Amino acid sequence: MNQPAMMDASAKSWYAVHTRPRWEKKVAGLLAKKKVEHYCPLNKVQRQWSDRKKIILEPLFTSYVFVRLSDVEHLPVLQTDGVLSFVYWLKRPAIIRDEEIEAIRRFMNDYESVKLEKTQVNVNDRVRIIGGPLMEREGNIVEIKHKTVKVQLPSLGYVLTATIEKSNVEILSLYGEATSSNVI
Q1: Which of 107, 145, 151, 152 has the fewest CB atoms within 10 Å, i.e. the most exposed one?
Q2: What is the CATH number of domain 109-184?
């Protein structure tokens, strides 16, 4: 990706910060007090105790919170209790595309008890989802079993797993065009 010679210092990008274990919600609260735009996706999970079941909100990404910052706002975030460091890629804080944050937001709004798996980026079929809550999203399918499709967000290095009807997925050609014979 080519970057302009002069970058706008006030332009904001999404980054991931690494937190102390089990500090994701605390860090999100502290960032809110500092008026830092942040996102800590919370997963609704049912927990069983000996006397009851309860739905609790757990961070989807353990030990990570997303922040949207300009270059000059990095230091105050690093000085926040519970923040250990930024996530780096090629010796610079890794920038996460707005589309990927938005995809996580939509995914979390549409599904409960989301499972998260760490994965290496493997390029398989390039697909477009043609129906359902992730409609018009393109990505790489890592695995398809019966009705389960794993949707890959490459720059995050994670896979979100959702049940999507096979009829709602079409394979794209090398040029990004769908063909009617490619519907799974």
Answers
A1: 145
A2: 2.30.30
CB-based contact 176:162 (threshold 8 Å): no
Q: In which residue ranges of the chain is pLDDT below 70?
A: 1-9, 117-129, 131-137, 141-167, 173-184
Q: Do the Cβ atoms of 38 and 65 come closer than 8 Å?
A: yes
Q: Quick one: fold of 12-96?
A: Alpha-Beta Plaits (3.30.70)
Full-model pTM: 0.64
**8-state DSSP, 50:** S
CA 27 from chain centre, in angstroms, equals: 18
The answer to whether the beta carbons of residues 8 and 74 sit under 8 Å apart is: no
- In this prediction, residue 27 carries a pLDDT of 97
